TrEMBL record:
SMART domains: HTH_MARR (SM00347). It comes from Herbidospora galbida. InterPro entries: HTH_MarR-typ (IPR000835), MarR/SlyA-like (IPR039422), WH-like_DNA-bd_sf (IPR036388), WH_DNA-bd_sf (IPR036390). Residues 1-143 form the HTH marR-type domain. SUPFAM superfamilies: Winged helix' DNA-binding domain. This is MarR family transcriptional regulator.
Amino acid sequence: MDPFDDPRLTAMGLFAEVYTGIADKNRRAFAEAGLSEVDFETLIRLARSPGQGLRMSDLAAQTNLSTSGITRVIDRLEREGLVSREACATDRRAFYPQITEAGRARLLEVLPRHLEDIEHWFTGLLQPAELHRFLETLRLIRDVVRPCATAGAEEIEPAT
């Protein structure tokens, strides 16, 4: 067998090509809303989290950024008024970023176009049963290669 004709190489190549292609399509909508890819990922993860906030360490794990990397992102988003820092009720040394109304508004500005792009370039190409199976498969793989991708998904209480 030709070592370059291995289906594992084909799978990785196709996955990389698909991701890169979709990311290129998404980048345009994000830029029009004044967001980078990492800004969008950070804001959408906060918006979709219980209480619309996460501990910094959990957010870093979910975004696959270093602690200092996510701190720089949060600092920038906080200066823009898109996130605020809230004290953690269970650990006074910690704080967690929480999306603000301005952050939600920015997401709502880009979300319709983003969802159209996802539908056009990705999910709309699959039948409902195919999409369901594909999502199950992605979760299976994600849970093995990035088990921390859902870190902090449980409810956290802000300090009162």
